[in-house]
């Protein structure tokens, strides 16, 4: 087999188990390696770095991005970042005269700094982020310079590891996030007393419990109802966790610029309950969860509890929403389709710059 035609370096700040790193990993490991040779650079190593190396992806860890750029001379650098000014990432690319720079703008933020002029294409992880960006900068952000490209989800693997027969009446609900207060809302705790009153055998499986959550459970004597679990780092473990649930309870006051956990729950045929966020906060959770179709949207703790009760008391409706969500995930978020779209963007930029092998 001949060597791949184009070298692509994906750059991310760290290689922990967060959603940004998982998305980067999905892109890198699913590129057509007959055409694109992927590499990864990060300032800090972590679990994703270990997994990438197990998948034979060469990773560079350290502080000297410029040296890596000069050594590899990639045709394309794909940066995964929040969107606000980040000269440590962009200035080395200008110094190395990188031919093409693509960014996945995770939070839809605007970078007015001179170093951002090197970026050839900005990819937003939801239409919400793209539209909000247009509002913030005061012009319509359109293709080919700006586009929405959903985060890839390994729908096929999640479906393959999720039980085909699910008991949607089982009073087991779950939530999953990093152990980070910024990923939580009080709504994700305050619905509990309303539920336990009517479902004494209710169980809440929580990955990513913060100290406030542990304290709330103890204060309200909910230790028999809430089970705190360790994080998961592989989709097989994630599917096993999702497979125990009747629905996913999502609550995050910051909101979601995409909502990877929501999309993964949908792939596992779970209905999702979420809530809106105010103002210009992230609200892509409402782009994923269609009220009454793939889940339910609630604004208060009592509404949230009533939504859970409704789905537990109406398992046929819960199943319908779960399957609708699974179909939506297959249609819009499936890794193979998203990566194919990314490769098309790469090809457009290579053609635009006149780069051939």
UniProtKB/TrEMBL annotation:
One term of GO molecular function: glycosyltransferase activity
Database matches in InterPro entries: Glyco_trans_1 (IPR001296)
Keywords, sorted A to Z: Transferase
Domain Glycosyl transferase family: 170-327
Pfam families on file: Glycos_transf_1
SUPFAM superfamilies per the UniProt record, alphabetical: UDP-Glycosyltransferase/glycogen phosphorylase
Record protein name field: Glycosyl transferase group 1
Lineage: Bacteria, Pseudomonadati, Thermodesulfobacteriota, Desulfovibrionia, Desulfovibrionales
